[in-house]
């Protein structure tokens, strides 16, 4: 990805399985792991055999994503891959255990505060997505 070459499913699956193993090995009730689980099949791998996995989908416009990428310094992700990432993206559906956050022009701290408040207080397993709008 650093060289501007997108990962294939074959590239991602071993990595996703390692994350799943890490989730299984954690005994704490609340642990956050960050990764780009762009496809439903990727999220299914992460949740495989786990009944305590929930997802948080940070939904931003393409322009907002580009702006955030431009602000990153010394990060491995090549911004030229944004189009590729968006073309692969499968937004979570209502069958998935997912909290959707519309980022808009919120600061990182506003987004984090919203996630903590809604993730801890809401049983998202049986609810529709919770949204944060501008």
Automatic annotation (TrEMBL):
Q: What is its EC number?
A: 2.7.1.12
One biological process term from GO is:
carbohydrate metabolic process
> Which of the seven top EC classes does this enzyme belong to?
transferase
Q: Which GO terms describe its molecular function?
A: ATP binding; gluconokinase activity
Q: Does the keyword Kinase apply?
A: yes
Task: Look up the record and name the pathway of this protein.
Answer: Carbohydrate acid metabolism; D-gluconate degradation
Annotated Gene Ontology cellular components are:
cytoplasm
Which terms are listed as keywords in the entry? Answer: ATP-binding, Kinase, Nucleotide-binding, Transferase
What's its catalytic activity? D-gluconate + ATP = 6-phospho-D-gluconate + ADP + H(+)
Instruction: Report the sequence similarity comment from the record.
Output: Belongs to the gluconokinase GntK/GntV family.
* Protein's name according to its UniProt entry: gluconokinase
Its source organism is Zancudomyces culisetae (Gut fungus)
